[in-house]
Amino acid sequence: MRQNAVRRAATGLVLALAVTAGALTAPAHSATADSATTDRAAAGPADKGRATDPAQDALDRIVAAGPPGAAATALRGRHTWNGTAGVADLDTSRPRTADDRFRAGSITKTLVATVLLQLEAEKRLDLDDSVEKWLPGLIRGKGHHGRHITVRQLLQHTSGLPNYTEDKQILRRLTTDFPERRYDTFRPEELVAVALGHKPDFRPGRGWKYSNTGYVVAGMVIEAVTGRPYAAEVKRRVLKPLGMKSTLLPGRRTTLPDPAVRHYSTHVGPEPGTAVHDVTEFSPTIAGAAGELVTTGGDITRFYRALLRGELLPPAQQRAMFKAVPVPGAPDHRYGLGVTSQRLSCGVTVWGHDGGIHGSASSAAGTRDGRKVLAFNVNGDWSDDPAAGEGLTDVWFCPSTPAAGRP
């Protein structure tokens, strides 16, 4: 979830205010040459005398450009690399570690789409079912009607539903008024109602625009089909089977369980850009099924590796998830069902999702066969050098670029 006015849709690191419009890029990192995991938690130049690690150097440059800290986890086959830079807490100067939890924003969407595709495989719904079938009466007014919108369109951002986080009042709560309104809670129906106060962006199926509203509705469809909250189904179907013990969907919980990073923003308060604010605690109900995920780099790489390898979906649903449509204005990107592809400058295509939420920017991506996967997070939503993260993608995914641990 990310604000268009402050996002950068390009290869590499995206640092932006989340809980608003779309996330399209996938920064990348590298893995070690053996199965041992390594950590380094220091921002700045490489230590004299140690071998150059391009991925670690990229992390150092990112933190030098502004955000308090950064952490990356990358997989290559059985091999894992963890890199860290900077701090998890500005008050205590505690270094970042690979085990720190962070808010992952719109990466939530891939898990929601996975559950709906599993339900289709079980013949409990069809992706081409109308929203009206499962949520009668929810989508009405201002030219909207649920009978014209399908579940597939919700997942692919082709529904035409306006993005509730672009509503002026909601946006003000997320920025200028955030310090006073950070603990406001929302029901999914309330967020949908905000979106329905605006006319459709286009007729369903006749365009593409990133919409958090669609995924809030998708979470409601899961509950209508299963009789259980969407978060319970994600936990039962994805988190537990994959052993993602550090991942949670917090609901109304405003704090993060330890160990966790503090999150920092310069985009909130009556005078945005003038101070750094600790925005770690707030009600994630403003994001819900569109972006409330809390996780770690290790957990999220485990998830994407399993997904890309076809371990979570049968072949028909796997093909449906990765059947992607063009993203207007981003010729190197396409969007499937809860996943986005990016064609890198070296010609390699990676799949995943990124996400931002107050004080946190994250990305996860992998090759289509799941052999190489990465996850990345920074615990600050600003940068003096938006291009600082561009080298990370090439380091890990482009064959001609030296990566950490390669002979």
UniProtKB/TrEMBL annotation:
The record ties this protein, via InterPro entries, to: AmpC-like, Beta-lactam-related, Beta-lactam/transpept-like
- TM spans, by residue? none
The residues covered by the Beta-lactamase-related domain are 65-382
Keywords (alphabetical) are: Signal
Q: Where is the composition biased (Low complexity)?
A: 27-43
Q: Where is the signal peptide?
A: 1-30
Region listing for Disordered, in residue ranges: 27-54
Name the PANTHER family on file. D-ALANYL-D-ALANINE CARBOXYPEPTIDASE, D-ALANYL-D-ALANINE-CARBOXYPEPTIDASE/ENDOPEPTIDASE AMPH
UniProt name for this protein = Beta-lactamase family protein
Q: Which organism is it from?
A: Streptomyces durbertensis
